[in-house]
Design brief:
The complex is a heterodimer of chains A (109) and B (274). Chain A is mainly alpha-helical and 109 residues long. In chain A, 60% of the residues lie in helices and 6% in strands. In chain A, helix 1 crosses helix 2 and helix 1 packs across helix 3. By secondary structure, chain B is α+β, with helices and mostly antiparallel strands. The chains are: A mainly alpha (109), B alpha+beta (274).
């Protein structure tokens, strides 16, 4: 178990989207794909979504709740919330640096 | 069962049974929703099949038996065969030792079975030799394997001609040459004391001899510190002992009182819990 999103390797992209989606409350698979589509404009294919869910559960960043009917909601854990916070803050630093340098060298978009 | 559900369950069969047991209903309902939402999504089925095969291959790494009995999808059998031929199981692969450089993967420990059998080592200008990997890395990833740090044999690129040995702290020494007679420069080793001060130890040349102190029974840090300070190389080996308390020295090879060369390797047996 590790609290690092980077430990998820090539799944860290979908994993970040899933964690961000779960940050405001538990969701099941379909609700996750619709929410991610809404806020990120990315259609996560079912296989990719479940690959990310499996890894997040393995790393203790999310946990599956009791199924409601046929759908099982997933919930972000405290470790997951910390990992997401760390990851997003690092991304924000990179984003701000990139945007700052772009506007310095290429003018404000 | 409606067509959408049938389609969803057919795709689900690509996943191994153990995965289906925990995820079946939630995954089928997600697929149904996804198919109803976007009936035509090129790549969705392939995405599911690829991820299902990935789950199978991950499970096969932990259990080869399960991999062979759970071949519900015909193409999977084909993948098993390809997997065996390329994974070093020897069905179609060319046998014989592999050689190469130490694989590097940032932030990760390279597994023993992914390391070439013989690792290339620098032995001098324009000259590269190969040494068995057991001298540089341990099968279980521990840093306390009995071979680690020992004087390692070095082979030529065809792995047959014996060129000499790599002596820790001295370097490559050709066969027939005494490592203790080599000309050398004094070496300074900088270390930090517990209080934060720096100490400099000068390691004498291999030609100098000294009498090894008897450190058996001493607590490990004191003993290793004393030996290192004299300029001999210390190789630690774990030993189970009934008489020597854990963390203390059981024996040394050569024994205390023996005359050794500076930089010569001394193996130190440390008592560890059973």
């Amino acid at each position: 178990m590790t609290g690092q999103l980077s430990a998820l390797g090539r799944y860290s992209g979908p994993a970040t989207l899933v964690l961000s989606s779960l940050a405001d409350g538990p969701k099941h698979g379909y609700a996750l794909t619709k929410d991610i589509e809404h806020f990120a404009g990315i259609h996560l294919a079912p296989g990719t979504l479940y690959a990310a869910l499996d890894r997040l559960v393995d790393h203790g960043l999310i946990e599956g709740l009791e199924a409601v009917g046929r759908r099982r909601p997933y919930k972000i854990t405290a470790v997951g919330a910390t990992a997401l916070m760390t990851h997003l803050q690092a991304q924000r630093r990179a984003t701000e640096t990139g945007l700052g340098r772009l506007s310095g060298a290429w003018g404000t978009p | 069962m409606n067509t959408v559900e049938r389609r969803a369950r057919r795709l689900l069969r690509w996943y191994p049974r153990s995965w289906r047991e925990t995820h079946e209903e939630e995954f089928v309902v997600l697929l149904e929703d996804s198919i109803l939402d976007r009936p035509f999504w090129p790549g969705r089925s392939l995405n599911i099949v690829m991820n299902a095969l990935r789950v199978r291959s991950e499970q096969s790494r932990t259990s080869h038996r399960r991999l062979l009995v759970s071949s519900s999808a015909p193409i999977f059998v084909l993948i098993v065969v390809i997997g065996f031929t390329t994974n070093g199981y020897g069905l179609l692969s060319v046998s014989g030792p592999t050689k190469g450089g130490m694989p590097y993967s940032p932030g990760k420990v390279v597994p023993y079975n992914k390391t070439p059998d013989y690792l290339s080592v620098y032995i001098g200008p324009n000259e590269v030799g190969y040494t068995p990997k057991a001298y540089l890395t341990a099968p279980d990833g521990s840093d306390n394997d009995s071979l680690l740090g020992r004087i390692a044999p070095i082979f030529a690129s065809n792995l047959t001609t014996l060129l000499g040995h790599d002596y820790p702290g001295i370097g490559f020494v050709r066969l027939g040459t005494s490592p203790w007679a080599l000309s050398c420069k004094l070496e300074n080793v900088y270390s930090e004391t517990a209080s934060g001060g720096q100490t400099i130890t000068t390691i004498p040349c291999p030609s100098m001899t000294l009498v090894l102190p008897n450190v058996a029974g001493m607590v490990t840090p004191t003993a290793v510190g004393e030996l290192s300070g004299l300029g001999v190389g210390v190789v630690i080996q774990n030993v189970h002992s009934t008489s020597v308390p854990v963390g203390h020295i059981v024996w040394t090879s050569p024994r205390g009182g023996a005359t050794v060369h500076a930089r010569q390797q001394v193996i130190v047996g440390i008592s560890v819990p059973n």
